[in-house]
From TrEMBL:
Start and end residues of each tRNA/rRNA methyltransferase SpoU type domain: 25-168
UniProt KW Methyltransferase keyword: yes
Pfam families cross-referenced by the UniProt entry: SpoU_methylase
Keyword field: Methyltransferase, Transferase
Protein name (record): RNA methyltransferase
GO molecular function terms attached to this record: RNA binding; RNA methyltransferase activity
GO biological process terms on file: methylation; RNA processing
InterPro entries hit by this protein: Alpha/beta_knot_MTases (IPR029028), rRNA_MeTrfase_TrmH (IPR004441), SpoU_MeTrfase (IPR001537), tRNA_m1G_MTases_N (IPR029026)
GO cellular component: cytosol
Domain of life, source organism: Bacteria
Amino acid sequence: MRKLKITEMNRLTVEEFKEAEKLPLVVILDEVRSLHNIGAVFRTSDAFLVNRIYLCGITATPPHPEMHKTALGAENTVDWTYVKHTQEAVDELHKEGYTVLAIEQCEGSTLLNDLVLDKDKKYAIVMGNEVKGVQQEVVNSCDGCIEIPQYGTKHSLNVSVTAGIVLWEFANKLMQFRLG
């Protein structure tokens, strides 16, 4: 096998990405402190045609050289909005008809592998602070919680790893609706 060159991958240009039909999926970062994690979420969001990222509270905004190290330019392709309070983003998205789901370990949470999506709905997922997770008041206003099954001794994953797993699952299911 031969590795493909970048020029052989038929990736979208920045302009083509901006014009492309995005998935009905929004990411909300609730008080994420690491610039590298934020950049990684931008890069993953670009890979999976996420519609927008909400950067909330202490979550830094582009441009920033440390963020760029992991985003590699995705901070220039994926649309983003800053809001001071995460609850404002949740309320706004509810008004726009989104189903908002916290990625958090909660009573009654849905395991990611059991997630069923509706082709007629739009989704927003909230990912929380590296230490405290999603704020409880934000969890309270969400339509549900999604949990990644884990089988080892640790009880959490890094937020950028979580984003990769969850965005892949959502994108995979939402793309199936497009493909028929």
